[in-house]
Structure formats: C-alpha cells, structure tokens
Prior knowledge:
By secondary structure, the chain is mainly alpha-helical. The protein has one domain: DNA polymerase, domain 1 (Orthogonal Bundle). Helices cover 58% and strands 0% of the residues. The protein contains 5 helices and no strands. It has helices spanning 3-6, 14-25, 30-47, 56-69, 73-80. Helix 4 (56-69) packs antiparallel against helix 5. It is globular.
Amino acid sequence: MTQERVWKGAPMNPLRQRYIDDLRLRNFSPSTIKVYVHAVARFAQFLSRSPVDATGEDLRRYLVAEIDRGMSRSCTYVHISPPDLEIEFWPTEPEGY
C-alpha cells in the first residue's frame, strides 16, 4: 500500500508514515488504517499540534467537542481506540459501551 492510497493529498510526515507502517505490520486493512489515520488527524487538528504529547484531558476535551458537534457514541470509540495513540483516557471501558 502506498501512502497515496491511505491519505490522498495530505503531506506525509515521518510520524504519520511510521504510524501507517506500524498498522500495516499489525495486518490492519487499508480501510481500517484510513479510519485510524483520519481519527488521529482530526484530533491533531483540534489540538492545533501533534498529538504525540497529548494528555487524557486533551482527549476528553476533544471527545466532548465532537459529541457536541453531533458525533455518535459509537464513533467516539473509534477516536479513542486507534492503536498506539497511547493516551490513557478510560481506566476501564466506560459504562454503557
């Protein structure tokens, strides 16, 4: 899979490329990779910076903003579950999931 197939037109920085490569090594499908890359990109856009040093509070603020914008609860799970995002947010699975 080339980077163009995952994210057309977006500049490919080394961190994003490594993330995509890591997902590919874990045998994620191209469509799943695209969803995860998009979720991380939206989070980075919300932060106005790279999510590398994001905190659980940053993620919480983002998810609240997305829910206020109309995101469904099931979509919020995609946004907190991308592999290797490594942000401790939920100590356990949230009630009602």
